[in-house]
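#data-curation
PF: Archiving a pair of folding outputs for the training set. Convention for this channel: one message per protein, sequence first, structure tokens after, nothing in between. First:
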Amino acid sequence: MSGADGSTRTVLVIDRDARWFCDALADCPGYRFVPSAGGVPSAGRHAQVLVGLAPAITAAVVDELPHLAWVHALTTGVDNLLALPNLGRDVALTNSRGVHGPQMSEMALMLMMACVRRLPAMLRHQAEGRWERWPQPLLLGKTVCIVGLGAIAEALAERCLAFGMRVTGVSDARTQVPGFARLYRREALQDAAAEADFLVVVVPYGASTRHLVDAAVLQCMKPSAVLVNLARGGCVDEAALARHLRDGRLAAAACDVFQTEPLPPDDPLWQLPNLIVTPHVGGQSDVYAQQLLPLLRRNLVGYAEAGRRALENLVPR
């Protein structure tokens, strides 16, 4: 089958679910799909379209695709792709933002409850055969401040409201969002942090958000408060966070993302008893491919009919 211009484009999909994607998208007109579990097979070397997780798309992969015109990342973050020296600016780049709300929200709630109820301590006591009880704080009536007000924040706010929480947010781009009791601009982040029982970071990473949550912001938080970082490691000053946790100036924190990933085995963050470390799994789900499929299908159909101007989630370059 051919696109509007009569051509048939080759789509190389590099992913562990590549064959599933190719089968599910086979009815998109104007394309021939080539699956790969990794690397560029000979059948994919003439691909005009590349689909894959951003970390799997390396400079070596791009070098093998001289006809590349569009890359779709099966992730939200595309930092490594923006830094590729051989990915020309004429190559359209799209990402998968907007589909991660359910899993990121559930991850945030899990970490919030695990921190305040001290679940890691309970698990240590289970391994020791030790019976010890302590009061169990509720989410009910607490204030959660969400830093970054995109689709993930909206999904998280909806779930927090169901738990009876008060929801506030921090953004320079939006002045009104349903369900949020109050919105702050980034310049007032310290004020927002001061009233929060939970500070959840889901803001995109960039030059303006590097160390957005720094020592000054952490200093404003209640000693009983909890920080949850699901954004990027660079959005939080990890050294300042570690000092506040060690000194008891912050009750607990949970980080799914880190400045260096994987987190080195000798990093002192591992040893902080009031920090929960998870290995950057917040965006994952057991139905991830199915979640991505509608966006990918819309983009393929639009691209075949009208080119890059029809693409959703086009990343500025």
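PF: Second:
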Amino acid sequence: MNATDMPATALIAEDEPLLAANLKAELQALWPDLRIVASVAHGEAAVQQALALRPQLLFLDIRMPGMSGLEAAQAIAEDWPDDGSPLPALVFVTAYDEYALQAFEQAAVDYVLKPVQPARLAQTCARVQAVLKQRTSAGGGAIDAALGQLRQLLGSGPPTAPPVAPLTVIQAAVGNAIHLVPVAEVVYFEAADKYVRVVTLEREYLVRTSLRELLPQIDLQRFWQVHRGTVVRSDAIATALRDEAGKITLTLRGHADRLAVSRLYANLFKPM
């Protein structure tokens, strides 16, 4: 039996056990050859198991404890092995209404609404089967296409909060003092668990917030996300160095640190 004849594999990430069990049962009825390799209850486990088991298809709940389905998809894309194997096809399971789901349709990533309806899930199965067949024949181009869809999705996902005026100052506690750090002087922000490192040319600060909470508050025209955990001021970038494997590393003006660019954001760097 060759690779194209092997049963398709899938992972389910859903934090509600009854919904996860129902989705698994419906999939087994509609697509008997599909092999569910894991069912997990949160985004971190989805990333870990997806990278370990390398399924062809992911069913990701949008809202899960901790890491969301979108964030899990981003982490999987960034950490997926560079061996030419295609990224998993993504199907999001969500309670969002039809208006909010227009972003998913435009990004060409399928979705199913909760509670899952068998007729709609049957359409999803047929669509995914066609996508998997196309990816088998597309080779390396399938990875580029999947990355493009994910980039679009991350840029047009469901709204979370109204936009706010960009921050101009970061208030960072250092001992008993609060330092007011102009955002214009920040070279880059880096996620550090529940904190964010705020790096300037002179020193760095640690602020008690997550990068996810900080991102909506900074000017993303000036600050570019180059990795799920790194956002850099664009005019602080000196060079983007691409190695033989295609991986990009950034050098900075006046700062010795070098920053890795994930392949999800590699499209930011191309000659004019």
